[in-house]
Fold this protein.
Amino acid sequence: MTRVAILISGGGSNMLRLVEAMQSDGFAEPVLVGSNDPSAGGLAKATALGVPTFAIDHRDFGKDRSAFEAELLKSLLAAQPDVLCLAGFMRVLTSDFVRHFDGRMLNIHPSLLPKYPGLHTHQRALDAKDKEAGCTVHQVTAELDAGPILGQARVPVLESDTAESLAARVLVQEHRLYPMVLRRFVAQDTSRIDL
Ligand code: GRF
């Protein structure tokens, strides 16, 4: 059974959908949920679903990104994951870290990449007066938010939208898209999903 670890930084709503999909359909096993923030609300949600968790506070390492990643890697590798999913994980990872999961690391980003890599994606779409927005699941490579796209979901942008209302509409699609992509990825199918 494919072993899947998930990294979060906050509420973990995407992580939750991934774990629930794996536990209900049995296409993979959620073996670990980790966070860079010990207060991340998603950790308790993972525990409630019986998934082991860990937290390593990146603030304990100051500017030493590689020391933080070395600790993160130790906890992750102990669970021997086959696939690593980033789900609302808000730390940029170095190419050294990414290399450990080359070709088996996914991320969800709240924009229609290649548009709007980085932060504040919804405000940027509003500022550009885009008529549509959405989310992307992609394979993680050393370049930020730039790996091969595995799936996208589109939503309309409404006149009345704020960054918050648009984020909420996109999040609903994230929760649909990510489990669908992970299921296919685990079955070695990288054909693109468009919702
Ligand atoms: C989501 O918009 C996700 O796209 C972004 O972080 C937000 C919160 O994700 N990466 P979650 O609820 O913690 O999964």
Summary: The longest strand covers residues 132-139. Residues 8, 10-15, 87-88, 108, 110, 135, 171, 174 surround 5-O-phosphono-beta-D-ribofuranosylamine (CB under 6 Å).
